[in-house]
Amino acid sequence: MLELDLVLLPFLENVYPTLEQADKERYWRLLECEDQDMFAWFLKRQDPEDKELLQIVQIIRDNTGKQS
Question: pTM (2 decimals)?
Fold first, then answer.
């Protein structure tokens, strides 16, 4: 899904390298989720039920649009 690429690729390039190892592992777990779920999470339509996933989703939300 192109919309997810627009969020995830800049995050991967600019923020991911600075994450703690546990958050990096959460990121890779997140990528196993359904695209539609991730899209809803990033648009704040809903939150993941899994608290570990919610943590990385929040990090991505907080950094979306801030990458240069």
Answer: 0.90
